[in-house]
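Quick one:
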Amino acid sequence: MEHKFSVLIYINDKSTPEWLNRALDSVLANTVRPSEIIAVICGVKSPQIQLILDKAKTNTDLRVLPYPVDYGRAFALQTALSKSSCELVALQDVNSISFSHRFEKQLAHFTAYPDTTVLGTCFQEIDGESLAPVDVHIVPPTHTKIKKILKQHCPFQHGTVMLKKQAVLEAGNYQPFPFLLEDYYLWVRVIGKGYKTANLPDILVAMPKDPALRWVCNAWLFFQANKNLYDVMREYKLIGVFSYYSKMMACFIKYLFIPNWLKKIFHKETWIFN
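Output:
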């Protein structure tokens, strides 16, 4: 069964022409091309980026939504998703490379399992300069395991996801959330409303490794953000009372009790996976 689908990409003043070019080239090199690409550009004045977009327009249906101010990724994706003309929508990170069979395999899954609403994939971390492989991230494959992992950290990597527009809109669409946790916040609401999710076992996206410990310098604010997420999980009955308070205690110890130097020594990527 042939599916039409859109690709959404958010570009801001931190986006580099080199990575944008790689991202768009990887989308256009896929065995199945999107029906449209919607690029939301916020606060960008780079002529190089404009040239790359102009080049892409000659090869595909590229719609550019320009904004003079960067209102953030949540606003950009919320706007792009609402303007998408397709029910299936793929998220493409400006700093990621989609492998050639990514869309083909995701579309095949939606055909085989039409009750799926959100579908991610495993991904390859690479060195940002040489593009050499660094690490592989294996994500939970089934909805049952995704619901379990959801209580610990985000079960999807943004730039690997393909989703169904209407279900996500019914869950409230993208909304701003501190520390770029808007993806996590959205998936909690989608799963909380009973929609089915999955991750493909295939490694279909590559992206540069991000060594940043965002919560080390903003421990209290990161604690508050996690508390808000757990509040939403409790509201949707994804966690019980005992689990809620256990997680709050674990967050308190992890973010506020352990000193920064010890956090850096024992840092694990899964603590901030989102």
